[in-house]
Design brief:
Family: Belongs to the GTP-binding SRP family. SRP54 subfamily.
Radius of gyration: 22 Å
Bound molecules: guanosine-5'-diphosphate
Strand order of the largest sheet: 3-2-4-1-5-6-7-8
Number of helices: 12
Largest sheet: 8 strands, mixed
Number of strands: 8
GO cellular component, one term: signal recognition particle
Keywords: Cytoplasm, GTP-binding, Hydrolase, Nucleotide-binding, Ribonucleoprotein, RNA-binding, Signal recognition particle
Helix content: 40-55%
Distance between the termini: 12 Å
Strand content: 5-15%
Order of helices and strands: HHHHHEHEHEHEHEHEHEEH
EC number: 3.6.5.4
Membrane topology: Peripheral membrane protein
């Protein structure tokens, strides 16, 4: 992830450090190049503008330009602002609630929602030693419930038995009841997706949310769709309220525009990255580590 941006930025910043003394116009020129690089990485325009303004305001201070290593100081400022843009503190799935903790997975069809549900379930089971139940609430896509059942078998995670003819709302209720009765720590609800956001999808999600009262509502979005992923996150947040984002297909995304804009545009943290099709291809999202990966 971020390969192209990382290459571009290291080129621009290397040039600055090699110059020794820096003038205001050197910094201004470098920032114009950084701006271009961020836009080419498909970062949202407002986010880029805000980022450049902040870096410039700090970097054009006299202490920076008069220092012995002005280039290094500019790089540090760029790094700090990147971390701030990505959400500083970082964030992971929050299970601090009375069990069974419900986690609702939402997103468009094909975003990787079902795969991510199984990846999270497996991680919580193996790493965090939680007793996890998964349930598919997707009654529209043929075989969606069966897909989750098979994934449950492959990952050795329990799935809610399929009952034909139930509505998503009924399945949500049954899942939460089964999790409570069965002494589960976590119940993961994989909701239906659509090709596009539509009113019916949102209404159904709101109703499921009100039944399951999830502690976490995670939006799964495809990193490769760039700013569309950011818009999808905004729309879901406005309608049902999300607590975090999982960006999938980060393994194939050389640009990284969605990852870079998501937090600043939606105010919601990226909690996890999907980095492949295997069960363990799931990474925590640490803003500081991501920034240092970008700056090389
Ligand atoms: P859903 O319709 O949102 O439930 O999507 P699925 O979970 O069925 O995933 C669609 C396809 O994307 C599957 O082939 C997954 O293996 C693949 N996929 C999901 N997450 C990732 C990821 O992080 N990286 C890659 N490379 N493929 C992924």
């Amino acid at each position: 992830m971020f390969q192209s941006l990382s290459d571009r930025l290291s080129g621009i910043l290397d040039k600055l450090t090699r110059r020794g003394a820096l003038t205001e116009s050197d910094v201004g020129e470098a920032m114009r190049e950084v701006r271009r690089a961020l836009l080419e990485a498909d970062v949202a325009l407002d986010v880029v503008r805000d980022f450049i303004d902040k870096v410039k305001a700090k970097a054009i201070g006299q202490e920076v330009l008069r220092s012995i290593t002005p280039g290094q100081m500019v790089i540090k400022i760029v790094n700090d602002e990147l971390v701030a843009m990505l959400g500083s503190e970082g964030s992971t799935i929050d299970l601090h609630a009375t069990p069974p903790v419900a986690i609702m997975m939402v997103g468009l069809q094909g975003s990787g929602k079902t795969t991510t549900t199984a990846k999270i379930a497996k991680r919580l089971t193996d790493r965090d030693k939680k007793k996890v139940l998964m349930a598919s609430l997707d009654v529209r896509r043929p075989a969606a419930q069966e897909q989750l059942r098979v994934l449950g078998e492959q990952t050795s995670v329990d799935t809610l038995p399929i009952v034909a003819g139930q509505t998503p709302q009924q399945i949500a209720k049954r899942a939460v009841d089964a999790a409570r009765l069965g002494g589960y720590d976590v119940v993961l609800l994989d909701t239906a997706g659509r090709i596009h956001i539509d009113e019916e999808l949102m209404r159904e999600s709101v109703e499921v949310r009100d039944i399951a009262r999830p502690h976490e509502t995670l939006l799964v979005a495809d990193s490769l769709t760039g700013q569309d992923a950011v818009n999808v996150a905004k729309a879901f947040d406005e309608r049902i309220g999300i607590t975090g984002i999982v960006l999938t297909r980060a393994d194939g995304d050389a640009r990284g525009g969605a990852a870079l804009s998501m937090r600043a545009v939606t105010g919601k943290p990226i909690k996890l990255l999907g980095v492949g099709e295997k069960w363990d291809a799931l990474e925590d999202f640490h803003p500081a580590r991501v920034a240092s990966r970008i700056l090389g």
